UniProtKB/TrEMBL annotation:
Keyword annotations of the record: Signal
Source species, domain of life: Bacteria
Gene3D superfamilies: Bordetella uptake gene, domain 1 (3.40.190.150), Periplasmic binding protein-like II (3.40.190.10)
Name assigned to this protein: Tripartite tricarboxylate transporter substrate binding protein
CDD domains: PBP2_Bug_TTT
Family to which the UniProt record says this protein belongs: Belongs to the UPF0065 (bug) family.
Signal sequence, renumbered to the chain: 1-34
Length: 326
């Protein structure tokens, strides 16, 4: 009887010990997950210092730091090379880690489609988008083309683009289809050359981000005809959208952040909250939206992911039409 009692007591002791260990484990796990992030975040920038992607990434980091939205630092790290392939590959290799982030650029889509990168958008987790950069279709102030309808009457038009595959080339193809007029995209080495070609009468039309073209519009040397976003640009309230003018064209550069594939859902939710606060802040409006005349827009992870797929499909269609890929 005594042995049975001792056995029962021993069993109870073991059960109590096991319960205590489980409770201890849960308590240890709880604070660890609640403490995310508990170390610095690496912001990989797939391009050099001073470029558009660098400015975007560092501005996001600055706003987050100023507003004290996270308890750790964001450490920017430039990894240029391979038209974005080097930097984006470095992010994708951190599969499952919620401590590496990157911004989305045109090369995020085009380089993989051209076979220049071992990773594509499928290797990333969309976090959120916080703004969009529209394009303004412009002509010289002396141009005979004063409206979008005037372009329909042209037999053939030319535009300038930086490289063969770009947003300007994509928009030229979309405009061509919408208006029923052939538009030839001529590649140049930079936006400055495109501007010179337009002002010099060597191309008929051009597409620029608002920050690139606003001074010329204000000076009266260029005439804006339409904007490629779904809504008008605050800095150019009198310029209608393509859709307002009956042309089904909506295409913008999406400004958002991604992480590697398979990061915890909790991390995605965390960054959705952080980036929503950034997108709605006066600091972001002053430091980026007003500076570059972007359109503020917040998209959560799901909506941003859908926009990424849609954008990639647009580029793929364009590149196939141009014979760049099969």
């Amino acid at each position: 009887m005594m042995n049975m009692t001792r056995s029962a007591l021993w069993s109870r002791s073991r059960a109590a010990l096991a319960g205590a260990m489980c409770a201890g484990a849960l308590l240890a796990a709880g604070p660890a997950s609640a403490a995310y992030p508990d170390r610095d975040i690496t912001m990989i920038i797939p391009f050099g210092v001073g470029g558009g992607s660098d400015v975007l990434a560092r501005t996001i980091g600055n706003v987050i730091a100023e507003m004290k939205l996270i308890p750790v630092k964001i450490l920017p790290e430039n990894r240029p090379g391979g038209s974005g392939a080097v930097g984006y590959s470095a992010v994708a290799k951190q599969k499952g880690s919620p401590y590496t982030i990157a911004t989305v650029s045109v090369s995020f889509f085009t380089t993989p489609l051209q076979g220049g990168s071992p990773v594509s958008y499928r290797d990333f987790t969309p976090l959120a988008a916080i703004a969009q950069s529209p394009y303004i279709l412009v002509v010289p102030a002396s141009s005979e083309y004063k409206t979008l309808d005037d372009l329909k009457k042209a037999k053939r038009l030319t535009t300038g683009t930086v490289g063969v595959v770009s947003d300007a080339a994509l928009l030229a193809r979309m405009t061509s289809k919408a208006l029923g007029v052939q538009i030839d995209a001529i590649p140049f080495d930079g936006e400055g050359e495109v501007m010179s070609a337009l002002l010099g009468g060597h191309v008929n039309i051009a597409y620029f981000n608002p920050s690139e073209v606003l001074p010329q519009i204000q000076a009266g040397t260029l005439r804006p005809l339409a904007v490629s976003s779904s809504q008008r640009v605050p800095a150019l309230k009198d310029v209608p959208t393509f859709t307002e003018l009956g042309a089904p064209i909506v295409h913008t550069q999406i400004r958002g952040l991604v992480m590697p594939k398979d990061v915890p859902a909790e991390a995605v939710t965390y960054w959705e909250g952080v980036l929503k606060k950034v997108a709605e802040s006066d600091a972001w409006k002053k430091q980026y939206v007003d500076r570059f005349h972007d359109v503020p827009q917040f998209l959560d992870s799901k909506a941003f992911g859908a926009a990424i797929v849609e954008t990639s499909n647009r580029y793929e269609t364009l590149m196939k039409e141009l014979g760049i890929i099969k």
